[in-house]
Specification:
Blueprint: H1 2-9, H2 14-26, H3 45-56, H4 62-69, H5 73-79, H6 90-93, H7 110-114
Helix pairs in contact: 1-2
């Protein structure tokens, strides 16, 4: 970006720009630039919150958001830092409805001795 911007501003001649691009490629910076592994990845929180708010408030549906942005849902989720599957029904599949817990029976009554713990079975994944 800096090489292109300097050339655009007239700081570099065409030959200097060409030489800089050659050096850039020789050093392997096209694949990975210095400090790429040391700098934290930036995730857009405001964009994620905005889309979640629009959907939660009912202003737009998830399908509307996908249609408005005209990109595959996986790309939208990645660019906006949304959870994988947010724009589809895949997120809702992971939610398991838990039965309401009854108040525990305490004391030495017959009812307390007869109450057994309940095991809740969960569906196996994958």
């Amino acid at each position: 970006m800096m090489i292109g911007r300097c050339a655009e501003l007239g700081i570099l001649s065409e030959e200097q720009e060409r030489n800089m691009w050659i050096q850039y490629a020789r050093r392997g910076y096209k694949k990975r630039e210095p400090l790429d592994d040391q700098m934290p990845e930036v995730t857009p929180r405001l964009l994620r919150r905005s889309i979640e708010m629009i959907v939660d408030e009912g202003t737009r549906t998830r399908d509307d958001v996908k249609a408005d942005l005209a990109l595959p849902e996986e790309i939208i989720e990645e660019l906006c830092s949304l959870k994988t599957g947010y724009l589809s029904d895949r997120v809702d599949e992971a939610v398991v409805a838990m039965p309401k817990r009854k108040e525990p029976v305490t004391g030495d009554s017959d009812e307390a001795r007869q109450t057994k713990p309940t095991i809740i079975p969960f569906a196996k994944q994958g």
